[in-house]
Every structure is written in C-alpha cells, then in structure tokens.
Amino acid sequence: MTNHPTSPSIYVSVLSDYNSGYLHGKWIDATLPVDEIYQDINKLYITSKFTNVTATVCNECDFIKLYEHDKCSSCNSPNIKTVPASEEYSVHDSEGFAPFEISEYSNIEEIASMADILSNVGNDEGLAKITFLASVYQDLDVIKDKIDDVILFNGSRGDYAEQLIDDCYSVPDFLVNYIDYPNL
Ligand SMILES: [Zn+2]
After folding, report:
1. What is the 80 CA–ligand 1 centroid distance (Å)?
2. Separation of 45 CA from ligand 1 center, angstroms?
3. Rounded to whole angstroms, how far apart are CA atoms 144 and 139?
4. How far is the CA of 65 from the centre of ligand 1 (A)?
5. Which residue has the higher pLDDT, 180 or 105?
6. N or C: where does the chain have the smaller number of CB atoms within 10 Å of the terminal CB?
7. Is 95 helix (H, G, I), strand (E, B) or coil?
8. Ligand 1 centre from 142 Cα, in Å?
C-alpha cells in the first residue's frame, strides 16, 4: 500500500484470507476496463493462502478464469493449467470516488462506471455537476447522460431567480421592487 492512488481506486482483498485473519489484497485502478479489473482480482485469487476452489491459467496468454475449463476463454488455447484459487473478494477501501460512495457490497461494474464518470471530469465545475446529480439520481447511466444538461449558477437561489426573470421576462419597472426574489 505504498503507492498512493491518484485516480479512483479500490482496495480489493480476498475474503477467505481476510476471514482467516490475513490481509491479502491490492489497490486496483478502477478506471481500467472491467475485464482487467477482474483479471487483477483473479490474480489475487490464485495467490490466496486460503483457497477453496480451482481456477485455470492459460499457458499462452496468462488469462485466469475461475473453476474448471477445457480451454482458455480469452485465446481459445487448450494449453491451460488448473490451480487452487479463492472465489470471493471484498472491497475494503476506496479513494477518489467522491461524491459517490463505495461500499464493500458495490459491484465491479458499478465501481468502474463511477470511475469512468469521474475520470471524464476535468475540473471543479464538472465535479460540482456530478455532486449535484448524485444527490438527485441513483442511476449512474442517468447521471452520465445529464452532466451536459446541468448549468451551474454561482450565487444564491434568489440571485438565480432574479437572473432567470431578467432573462425571460421584461419586468415593468414599477413591479421590480415588489418581487420577492429569494423566496421565488
Ligand atoms: Zn489464453
């Protein structure tokens, strides 16, 4: 855990080791493609001290897959070996996901989707939009779709109401002082 993660990252550990009082895990960059994240987790599984299932490792391309297979699911080679493995992980820590929250029950697809949204944000303004959307919507696809629709306004609710009315209507001068902008 010496390398401090700079992009959204998760600390994944193997549950069977953890439950036996042994921390066996690593930080994984969550902006990687989902398949690569799973391969990183599979690498942890086959180096676990408390194995309870088997996995196959391809001798041609190193692809790891849990349980028994006749050939490699990645390159189709029958040149594979069977090794002991674990089969359950837990996300024990995360970095760089705010405003999203990661729990140990968050699944990898969900985590990768959050990382994808965040890695496309270049500045504080983008992050403010995501923070707003995440407070309104749960669905990550919806949040992703709506980022470009959010318009940030720097000021109070009343300032915003005032500007909106100025932009949209021409308020007769005699009425201006009667509009209670902050409470609109
Ligand atoms: Zn292969």
Report:
1. 8
2. 18
3. 9
4. 10
5. 105
6. N
7. strand
8. 36
